[in-house]
Amino acid sequence: MARQEKPVDVVLVGLGWTNSIMGMELAQEGLNVLALERGEDRDTVPDFAYPKMADELTYGVRYKLMAKPAKSTITVRHSLTETALPYRHLGSFLPGDGVGGAGTHWNGHTWRPMPEELRLRSYVEETFGKDIIPADMTIQDFGVSYDELEPHFDFFDKVMGVSGKAGNVNGEIHEGGNPFEGRRSSEYPLPPLKRTFNDELFTNVAKEHGLHPFPLPSSNASEAYTNPYGMQLGPCNFCGFCERYGCLNFSKASPQTCILGALKQHKNFSYRANSEVLKVELADDKKTAKGVTYIDKNGEEVFQPAKIVIVGTFAYNNVRLLLLSGIGQPYDPVTNTGTVGRNYAYQMMGGATLFFKDKFFNPFIGAGSNATTVDDYAINQIDFAKEGFIGGSYLLAAQTNGQPIRSMPLPAGTPSWGAGWKKATKDYYGHSMSISSHGSNMSYRDCYLSLDPNYTDDHGLPLLRLTFDWKDNDIRMTQFMKGKVEALAKGLNPDHLNISFKDFGAKYDVRPYQTTHNVGGAIMGTNPKTSVLNRYQQSWDVHNVFVLGSSSFPQNLQYNPTMLVGGLAYWTAKAIREQYLKQPGPLVQA
Amino acid sequence: MNTRLSLLLPAMLVAAATAQAADQTLIAKGEYLSRAGDCIACHTVKGGEPFAGGLPIESPFGTIYSTNITPSKTAGIGNYTLEQFDDAVRHGERADGGNLYPAMPYPDYSVLSDDDVKAMYAYFMEGVKPVDKKAPETDLSFPFNQRWGIGMWDLVFGHDAAFEPHSQNPFVNRGAYLVQGLGHCGSCHSPRGVAFQEKGYDETDANFLSGGKIGIWEAPSLRGGSGAGPLVSWDKAEIVDYLANGRNDRTAVGGEMTSVIEHSLSYLTQADLEAIADYLKSLPGAGKEVLLSAEATEKTAAQLNSAKVPVDSGARVYLDNCGACHFTRGQGASRVFPQLDGNALVNAEDPSGLIHVILAGARLPSTKGAPEELAMPAFGWRLNDEDVAKLATFVRQAWNNHAAAVTAKQVAAVRETIPATELNATKPTLN
Lengths: 590, 431
Fold this sequence. Notes:
Radius of gyration of chain B: 24 Å
Main location (chain B): membrane
Oligomer: heterodimer
Strand content of chain B: under 5%
Number of strands of chain B: 6
Number of strands of chain A: 24
Structural class of chain A: alpha/beta
Distance between the termini of chain B: 82 Å
Helix content of chain B: 40-55%
Keywords (chain B): Cell membrane, Electron transport, Heme, Iron, Membrane, Metal-binding, Repeat, Signal, Transport
Signal peptide (chain B): 1-21
Shape of chain B: globular
Helix content of chain A: 10-25%
Number of helices of chain B: 18
Largest sheet of chain A: 8 strands, mixed
Largest sheet of chain B: 2 strands, antiparallel
Protein name (chain B): Cytochrome c
Subcellular location (chain B): Cell membrane
Number of helices of chain A: 13
Largest interface: A-B, 32 and 29 residues
Order of helices and strands of chain B: HHEEHHHHHHEEHHHHHHHEEHHH
């Protein structure tokens, strides 16, 4: 018999970016809000303190800040006919753990989606006709427009203290920013980070090619900053320990540096760490949730009653919780019925490393989003009919770190050990730069999430199973980008050039790191037959359950997801504050 | 009859509500004043019930335990009349006729107005939750256990006078009232005399607020009008920011002042904080104003930027441990990382406070205006006494700083007072 806690108005499952935002919004509303976080409590000091954090082996290789696969992981397979196996060692993507979630160990790339990406199917059909969409491609519109989200993007920019240069302010194109971006209502809150040598080289060659380089929008603060909540960021010191690390300098936007201190000032907000939610409990009619059941820090099972349940855990864990709770109908790719688990998508990456004997880049200078980028090959810039694919990428030259274990690129063909390796390391450490492509990934009928029939977690509950592989459309897209990257790289005359882009027949490999941009599975939309959530990220089936995070994306953006994840959280918070609290019920009639 | 009743009722309700509201206003005023007086700091143990007392206060004469000042009739002050409450707060006399130890700042509180004492009485009787738990009795050794002796002390060294406004400016007078009275700033920031009495209780005495000491922490001069002292170069907005949030463009709070900001000053209105700033800026100081020269700043910065520093030097320890946040120019970052160039704590005559921060780190309070608990990690696990001495010496002589060198022995003495858990709070652990 589970212990029962005092009822609350709102229970937040997970305490990363989305639920920090939601906690703040609903605490401001005067509601009694409780967050339950599976992992431990974390703060800059002591958890990310200098110099402890600058330890590549502990945090970069052994993933001290990430979720532990021994406790819970997912299983992976390429197709419906295979048996999935557990993802036992983190590689391809790094789910977060603890208070702040993956928002503590990201790089800080802070992109808004393009207006066209939020209505992708409509955009493609209107511009190129229905026929260019492959039969098994299941891309959809989000059901919410860029203009509706813009005020929330603008506010989240200010909350995170994003450093950058706007290219489009209220329709006016500004030199030095991204001319292809959606309309911004204001300039970035902070100027761009200081530029490094690789930025200069990339900027010059991109301009020679007629492209429009600009500083990557960064949530590494370029200056001391105070956000609308009174929270503060210190200037980034380019220490080079960003992705996979908590920021030791209060410089990277995270729930800790941007929201939590201000949220804790609200007496009607509280949180419990080491509290793992197993299930959302439904009322007998299955139309509302009564609360959640969780395992507390002592291993005891607890029922926490609540009037509203906000699911804001890591992307695919949201999907698993819905499946374990019986919220919505599980998706079946064979019959093409059900919605929960549908439209999982990832990110298509490729890159080049350029080696120069006579140029030194000082890799000791690095920041998570220290990069120059071009968006000339973005979704709204490419003729899909002509090129034969749907999608787009931004290209970037980044210098994030010079960590010795994992950031030691060497020319192709260098021996991987011994005297030859030593000599090349001596010759080339600090003598290389990269140009990468970061691109979209479409959704497909047979790329989806479901409960695994064979494997369970430490509570005996089924693991989540991922069925996913690369498709020709996205390979065509990345091969197109390969040509563009190669041209830019050769324009810089490197002594050696390593190129790595996926080619036809490539299988999804979970071992090398790609991105932690796992999306879909609990997608938002306008039709309950093809989406789990309505346009307000409210469950179509259980109206007092809202689901936040990149699990809402019907396919993946060409960009990093954090800004859209946060913008959507504010959008949902507004709907709850202005509509749902006055009249609890479905905000969209099915 | 019934109709008449129903007509009467609302009127009665309104009358009752107004009486209640007046009380509530008075109680709220009393609560605000209790914040200004920071009563909660001494009369509450860490993590304990508010105002239930029992906090040990170290004095030169032994440990004094604060009393339970909740309205409990058995353990607190629930039986006190307004007059008895007033005798305790303004004159240091207990209801049983005994004298309070001047650990209670009644010599400062003596300037309080009758109205303010009434409001505080209303708050402590009706706005505070009674706690029926007795605080431990203070038990000093002879002769300090002879409370009658304090009566003599009061006569010779005490201060028991009503507030006297000395300025034409009402804001300065309001600031004076807050600083001298409830703020009892002089209890730390004024020098102490032979009998541990504060030297001066208002601006008529040049010693008043000219700097004092509390434990290992130097409480700098607050005389901001002229002369030496950190406030001389601060403008009004910087003083207000510091008092409200424990941080400003130049510095960040450390040591004993942290709790004063967290529990008292951060609750004051903007108008009151501005009045305090006005008053402090009206006080002329002694000595010469220290002007920071850009040349001195750049000289040290150039040395650090060159990275040509001896491997076992204090400069090297600084680069390896401090530069990440305070930077080579020692300027830190506005409101986030304190400026070390010209910093009062860095340049204090007694380096113990600086040593404490290096060893144990420091954490800013979360205030309404600045909710982030920006923190410096502890370095006590990483640097030995010799390292810290070298580092502190370097910092005390870098940029525009001109303070005496620090010895390993001084570091060891401070280290002894810090619990191992604090020294090791951010020590890496083996996986």
